[in-house]
Design goal:
about 575 residues, mainly beta, eight-stranded mixed beta sheet, six-stranded mixed beta sheet, 6 helices
């Protein structure tokens, strides 16, 4: 057994600061003596090692906040107890419990907010590199929850039915009739009429309605054409299923998490739109929510937006959204530096939404905090920082000594991190800035940095006209012939990392814009990351090849037309 339990032997909730905030999905106060529990099936490893090291699956789980996860391909780091514990702490929190089967190449496991009071594995006779991982969980109320994490074989429907029959026998022999039961994971099923569902139906319900993504697609394999993944529960638990609510979005039968179609993506931040399409991403996660009776109602708050990664313009209005239970009035605050907090409102009705006028101060370290107005210890903060940009750059365009009149807007629009042809072609790396505002901006002395150091300082007298772009290349050799709105990096190179990097633009030491690019956007030689839509400062970055047939478009729009 490879099991990890918090040292305080607590309930798995944070009980104080609210930083993990409970499930935060019901949009209000649940009925007395009820607990909302979110179950997830997650075969969402990525990369080349069937592991969670690349981080795409981690962000998806962080953004959707499940309470109990039936996880497959449970590999991370060296798979030591310390590394697995670190994975759980980072993804869910230090008060979560876990069980991971041992001796398996792609092990199954269970991760839970609530105490795991027993766990183990039942032998899958049809496969040698994993078994059925089970856990008995002490959820609130008089009944325990038994969950089984499964990963059936791809070799054929008959083999999968044999596996299902064996698992049903284990369940009948070990799971008390009075407890709740959930079977979740990767079934590898080609359709919903496979015989394994009939076999499973003796212990869990297999009927519709089925979870779906934002577009109504129920399928979960990488190509979104087959129903591979499932969360199936017994009739005792099924009667308590409720709609899955995240931010302002509602999914009546549960959610298939495909970040490529989820909108607005900020509701599940820090997940990024490209995470579900990353290299070797296995499948889509499945979520179902249940409001079970019994236990005491736990007050909780969860910030949904801004939750990290957003880029908002100073002076614009945006909705701060949150979910809560057991809270009558909420206090809202913000920070621009991560330490000093300013009150937005000391008390507002706990409706879960408040329209906020963003301060006109440039920063990449902004966060929002929502607290119980009568108990400041109960609070939740944005999971990660978001960016505020200001007109005309860092100080509105006039105070920077340039020609801006306060309505210029400069931002990162396109970045090529992975140079074409590999090592030796670093001169072709580039960073494109666009001014979509109505006035020119003097960017003299502005800097472009990666995660390590400053890579370029704009020369004195550099002015970026309204509606124009400027490109900084790694070296003179990289600048295409005839491109006049381009310069070479003043330090001799941009030195961007192909394994992922953060690019930051600053004026006078104040951040104007900043973006972090993961391996999804840096893993292909010669293909840049571009805003989608092109030229929109609040848009997300996507691979250029998803917008046009060309790999990049330095200095011009995606369609080749000039700025």
């Amino acid at each position: 057994m490879d099991a990890g339990f918090p040292g305080d032997a607590g309930t798995g909730t944070d009980g104080g600061t609210g930083t993990d905030g409970g499930t935060g999905t019901d949009g209000g106060t649940p009925p007395p003596s009820s607990t909302l529990i979110r179950l997830m099936a997650a075969n969402i490893s990525s990369g080349n090692l069937q592991s969670y090291d690349p981080g795409h699956g981690i962000r998806i789980m962080q953004g959707t906040k499940p309470d109990v996860v039936m996880i497959q391909e449970f590999n991370y780091g060296s798979n030591s107890s310390a590394d697995i514990r670190g994975f759980v702490d980072t993804t869910f929190g230090p008060n979560f419990y876990y069980y991971r089967e041992t001796g398996a190449q792609i092990p199954n496991g269970v991760i839970s907010r609530y105490p795991i009071i027993a766990a183990g594995e039942w032998t899958d006779t049809q496969v040698s590199n994993r078994d059925f991982a089970w856990a008995r969980i002490d959820v609130p109320g008089p009944r325990d929850l038994w969950v089984v994490s499964v990963h059936l074989l791809t070799s054929g429907a008959g083999v999968r039915n044999t596996e299902a029959g064996n698992l049903v026998n284990f369940i009948n022999a070990n799971v008390p009739q009075g407890d709740y039961l959930a079977i979740g994971g990767d079934f590898n099923t080609d359709n919903r009429s496979e015989s394994c569902f009939s076999t499973f139906s003796s212990v869990v319900t297999t009927s519709s309605p089925y979870p779906a993504d934002r577009n109504g697609n129920n399928n979960t394999n990488a190509g979104r054409s087959k129903p591979y993944d499932h969360v199936l529960v017994d009739a005792d638990l099924r009667q308590y299923q409720v709609a899955t609510v995240i931010g302002s979005s509602t999914f009546p039968a549960g959610l298939v998490v495909d970040t490529r179609v989820y909108s607005p993506i900020s509701e599940i931040s820090p997940a990024q739109s490209g995470d579900s399409g990353s290299t070797n991403m296995q499948h889509m996660a499945i979520i179902k929510d249940f409001l079970i009776p019994g236990g005491t109602t736990t007050a909780s708050i969860t910030v949904n937006s801004p939750n990290g990664g957003e880029s908002w313009v100073g002076g614009s209005s945006h909705a701060i959204t949150w979910t809560s239970s057991g809270v009558v009035n909420a206090k809202l605050e913000y920070t621009l530096d991560g330490s000093a907090w300013t009150t937005i409102t000391s008390s507002t009705a706990s409706s879960g939404s408040y329209t906020w006028t963003v301060p006109n101060v440039a920063t990449s370290a902004a966060k929002v905090r929502v607290s119980d107005a009568s108990n400041s210890a109960l609070n939740d903060t944005s999971n990660a920082s978001f960016t505020i940009t200001v007109s005309g750059g860092a100080d509105g365009g006039v105070a920077d000594g340039g020609t801006g009149t306060g309505d210029g807007l400069v931002f990162l629009n396109e970045v090529l991190i992975n140079e074409p042809g590999g090592a030796g072609a670093e001169a072709y790396e580039f960073v494109e800035l666009v001014n979509s505002g109505g006035a020119a901006v003097d960017i003299s002395g502005w800097t472009i940095s990666d995660a390590v150091s400053v890579r370029h300082v704009f020369a004195s007298g550099t002015v970026l006209g309204a509606g124009r772009a400027i490109v900084v290349f790694g070296g003179p050799a990289g600048i295409p012939g005839g491109l006049t709105n381009a310069v070479a990096a003043s330090t001799g190179g941009l030195n961007l990392s192909n394994s992922g990097d953060t690019v930051t633009v600053k004026s006078g030491g104040v951040t104007v814009d900043s973006a972090t690019f993961g391996t999804t956007l840096t893993g292909t030689d010669g293909v840049s990351a571009n805003r989608s839509p092109d030229g929109v400062n609040t848009a997300t970055f996507v691979l250029h090849t998803s917008l046009s047939s060309s790999q990049s478009s330095p200095g011009v729009r995606v369609n080749g037309s000039p700025f």
